[in-house]
Amino acid sequence: MDITILGIESSCDDTSAAVLRNNVLLSNVIASQAVHVKYGGVIPELASRAHQQNIIPVVDTALKEAGITADKLDAIAFTRGPGLLGSLLVGTSFAKGLSIAHNIPMVEVNHLQGHILSHFIDLPDRTLPHPDFPFLCLLVSGGHSQIVRVDSPLEMEIIGTTIDDAAGEAFDKCAKVMGLPYPGGPVIDRLAKEGDPKAFRFAKPHVDGYDYSFSGLKTSFLYTLRDEVAENPDFIEKNKADLCASLQATIVDILLDKLIRASKDTGIKDIAIAGGVSANSGLRAGIVETGRRRGWRTFLPEFKFTTDNAAMIAMSGYFRYKHGDIASLDLAPVARLEDL
Ligand code: KG4
Ligand code: ZN
């Protein structure tokens, strides 16, 4: 029997709603919040207010585009966390209201598991490649950098994580000191295409196991700029492309190094990437090239599933609903992964 799920995502600065029938995407609507650009980062209080303004039209559009009314849904999946508490509260409360109004069960979703499970979505006119279990997923976003061993849609283990900054944060913070707009990741990606990835050398971390660290790289980047700008005030402007290319190449190297080690040790060769930074062209090329040499099957998400979206929340919700995981109406959102 078909299962139709509405997904709701509001963990950070994108308000999104999507409808899936089984694993097939019927609609995926995302309202991004331009209000943060002038501050160079997400302002939590402004994010919650924008979610409140966006959520009704976004859900309404997602249902209309899917050609369905709310009373025909089997379940409502919502992001319970991790994320900004005020933002999560908007999506969670909305899901509860809709659930009560139409007497439809709710399913809670872990945002990070959503990113990973986006690899199981198909499009109406096209099936997409799905990894086999177990697989390893490099989950890289603005808030997280993890290597996750995925044994089933419901069983995942984080085997490596960052001990300080996330990969996306490294992109965004280094972009900020170069005077580039927020979020810096996509801008660096674009500028890096014109630059020489070997022009500059930045520090690489030495961290045990499969864990990551990016704060040393950030400091080394900052010191390079400080020393060079002291001699030549035009340094950043003149070397922007080379700086971006070298920074991006270093981040990709750091990410791949631990992923290769994890694959060697576990013997797992189905390798996926997910999260905002998985849109990065250097990372995508690096994964494909490494996979070719090491006999991996590599899984790159469609661009529309890299950054935050509700399709991945509906996908994760589908697996949970089939497993009978219904959320209670008194459930509160949770900001930190450790508390989820
Ligand atoms: O997953 P996401 O949309 O939100 C979080 O849950 O954090 O990830 C956002 C992050 C930002 O740090 C952004 O700069 C980064 O993903 N990002 C990129 C690219 N596109 C987005 N980083 C590098 N290259 C890109 N093309
Ligand atoms: Zn995310």
Helix content: 40-55%
Domain count, please report it: 2
Query: Architecture of the largest domain in CATH?
Result: 2-Layer Sandwich
The small-molecule ligands in this entry are: 5'-O-[(R)-(carboxyoxy)(hydroxy)phosphoryl]adenosine, zinc ion
Number of strands: 10
Low-confidence stretches: none
Identify the CATH homologous superfamily of the largest domain: ATPase, nucleotide binding domain
The ordered string of helix (H) and strand (E) elements is EEEHEHEHEEEHHHHEHEH
**Average pLDDT over all residues:** 96
Hey, roughly how much beta strand do the residues contain?
15-25%
Structural class determined from secondary elements: alpha/beta
Mind summarizing the main beta sheet?
A: 5 strands, mixed
Shape: globular
List the helices and strands and how they pair.
Elements: E1 4-9, E2 14-21, E3 24-32, H1 44-66, E4 75-81, H2 85-102, E5 106-110, H3 111-117, E6 135-140, E7 145-150, E8 156-161, H4 167-177, H5 184-192, H6 215-231, H7 235-266, E9 270-274, H8 281-294, E10 297-299, H9 311-322
Parallel strand pairs: 1-4, 4-5, 6-9, 9-10
Antiparallel strand pairs: 1-2, 2-3, 6-7, 7-8
Helix pairs in contact: 1-2, 3-9, 4-5, 4-6, 4-7, 5-7, 6-7, 7-8
Would you kindly provide a brief summary of this structure?
With 340 residues, the chain is α/β, with parallel strands linked by helices.
3D architecture notes:
This protein has 340 residues and is an alpha/beta fold. It has helices spanning 44-66, 85-102, 111-117, 167-177, 184-192, 215-231, 235-266, 281-294, 311-322, and strands at residues 4-9, 14-21, 24-32, 75-81, 106-110, 135-140, 145-150, 156-161, 270-274, 297-299. Strand 6 and strand 7 (145-150) form a beta hairpin. Helix 3 packs across helix 9, helix 4 (167-177) runs parallel beside helix 6 (215-231) and helix 5 crosses helix 7 (235-266). The longest helix is centred in the last third of the chain and has 32 residues, at 235-266. The protein starts with a strand and ends in an 18-residue tail after the last helix. The relative contact order is 0.18. The structure holds 5'-O-[(R)-(carboxyoxy)(hydroxy)phosphoryl]adenosine and zinc ion. Residues 12, 141-143, 168, 171-172, 183-186, 189, 275-277, 279-280, 307-308 line the site of 5'-O-[(R)-(carboxyoxy)(hydroxy)phosphoryl]adenosine (KG4).
